[in-house]
Amino acid sequence: MNMYRLLVFGLLFCLLPIGVQAQYTSLDNASGKQRKTYDKAMEYISRGDYSRAKHQLLQILNEDSTFIDAHIQLAYIYYDQDNYALAERGMERALKLDPHYKDFLYYQLGLTEYRQNKMLEATGHFETFLETGDGGERERESAQEYLELAAFAANAMRNPVPFKPEPLPVTINTDNAEYLPCLTADGERMIFTRVVDGGEDFYESILEDGVWQEATAIDAINTEDNEGAQCISPDGRYMVFTRCFPEYMHRSCDLFFAEKIGSRWTTPRAIGLPINTPSWESQPSLSPNGKELYFASNRRGSLGGKDLWVSYRQADGSWSEPENLGPKINTSASDQSPFIHPDNQTLYFMSSGHPGLGGHDLYVSRRDSTGAWGTPENLGYPINTKANEGALIISLDGKTGYFATDQIDPANPEDSSFEGIRSNRTTDIFSFELYPAARPAPVTYVRARVFDAVSKDPLVAQATFVELSEDREWASSLTNLRGEFLVVLPSGEDYALNVSKEGYFFHSENFNFSGDYPITEPYTLDIYLQPIPDSPEGMDAGEPIVLRNIFFEFDKDILKSESKTELELLHQLLVDYPQMKIQINGHTDSEGDDAYNQNLSERRAKSVKEYLVKAGIDPKRLSYKGFGESRPIATNDTPEGRQLNRRTEFEIVE
Question: In terms of pTM, does the model score above 0.85?
C-alpha cells in the first residue's frame, strides 16, 4: 500500500458512518487530545514519515488500547513496510473490537494473509468481504481474483512437488551476482551472466570430469554496455543474447548474435529487423535445430505488458516477421523468459498472468501434433512461491533444472523455501532434479567427426538430418575446422543423416526414434568420406557404399516413400559425375530360405536401378546384383544386427 492509499483509508474512516457503537474508542467519540494525536499521525503519513506516524499511533494505543482507528492505521503502515505479521495482528484486533466497523478491512486482512501464504485464512476473509457487498467494482473484482489465487495456492501448498535445490560450486557462484545460465546439449559448457563493477558480462565454465571449472570472461563479446539474457545453440557455436542501451540512444534492449569459429567468437552483430524494434526485445531461446527463435517483447501487438513471440529462420538465413504466441500462452499481465527445450515441443516460461502463487511463477506448455500450444501448467510449490521466480532452463535429458535466485541461502539450501523477505544475499545459480511429470520428451544428440578416408585429415563437410516421414530437413550444419558437428534429435521421428562434401562420396546413417523408442545414450560417430577418383580409370576403386536410408515394404521389393531422400542423393551423384558407372547390391538377413532371400535381394536391387532409370540415368551406367544373406556385416542373432544386414549398397564398376 502506498502513502496515497493510507490517506484515502484515513478519510474513509472519518466520513463513513459507524453504526451501532461497541465498547471501544473511534474517531466519533475520541477525546480532543486523542483526535489531535491521530491527526498528527495522519500528517506524518502524508509526508511519508512512517516512523513518526507509528510513534503517534502507538502513543494513542498505549493510553487507550480500544482506539480502533489507530489499530487500523498502524496495521496499514506495517503492511506498507512488508511487516505482514504485525499488520495482520493489528487488523485482527480491530475486527475483534467490532467485526463490522469497516468491512473493507476483511479485504485488506485477506491480502495480508495471502502475502504470508496463509491461504485458508485469506480465502475466508476474501469471501467475507464479498458477502458484505462493500467496496467498488474494482476492489470486488480484485477480491474475487485473489480468492481464486488463494484457492489455487492452498491446493498447491497442500500437494507440494519434490524440490531440493543445490548451489553450483564457487567456480561459478561468487560474491558477485550470477544468473541466467544456458547449457550446450552435452551439458559440458555453461554460459551465464555475472555482474562485475555494476555491469553485466558473460562468463563461461567447462565441465571436466564432472567438475565445473573456474569461469572465465568471454571478452570477445563483453562490452561496456550490459550483456545478458542469452541462449546458445546445442553445439555451442551460435549465441543469441540481449544488449541494452543508454537512454539517449532512444532504444531499449535488442537481440544480438555471435558465432564461434574455432576457439574464437566473432564480433557480435544485431539481428536487426524485423525482430529488433525500438521496443524492448530480450530473453531469446533457440529451437534445437536453430530454425525458431523465441523471445520476450513489449512490442506493438502484445496482449499484455510483455509477451512471448517466435520468429522463423528463412531459407536465406533471415528471420520472419515475429508471431505472438497467442492467448493460450500470453496474458494481459507479464509473460517472459521463454525456454524451448531441445525436444522442440516443451516450452517453459514465467508469467504473472496465469493462476499461480503470487508474483511471477514458472509454467510449462506442450506443443501437440498440430503445432498448437497446450494450456500452461504451473510447476507447483515450492518451485513457485509468492516471490518472483525467474528464468528456468532444463538439461537435455530433462532431469535437471537450472535457475538463479537470492531467496536461498547457499550455505543451507535445504532450510530455505523462498518464504522470507528478500535478503541481501547475492543472486546465485542453483540446480535441482525436476520431478517426472514436468519433464520434457526424450532427446538425444549425434556428435560426429568427419575425416578423409585416405589421408585421415578432418574435413569441413555438410551434415544434414532429414525427418523421413515428412521428407523435411530437420537440421543442417557445417562441421567445424576439426571436422566436428553436434545435432540434437528429439524422439518420435525417423531421421536420415547425410554427410557430403564436393569431391567425395556421400555417407548416410539412419536413426529410428519413432514410436516409443527409448532414447538412452548419445551417439558418437567417426565418419570417413571416400574421395571420388579424378578420372574414369580410377573409378573402380573403393569399398561399396552403404545406403542406410533406402527402405522397402515388408518382404517386398516396393520402395517406401522414406527412401526418396537417399535415392535423390544417389541420382544427383550420377548427374554430377556422368562418367561414373555403378552396381547396385542388395542384401538380406538370414531369416527365411536361402533361395528366397537371394531372389528378394535381386528384386530389391533391381527396384533401385529402375528408380534411377526413370529419373533419367542411362541404364547402361547401371547394373544390379543380389547377394541374399551371403555377405553379413553384423550378427544375425539380434534385431539390430539383422537390420544392418538388410541393406542396399552401390559400388563403382568399369
Answer: no
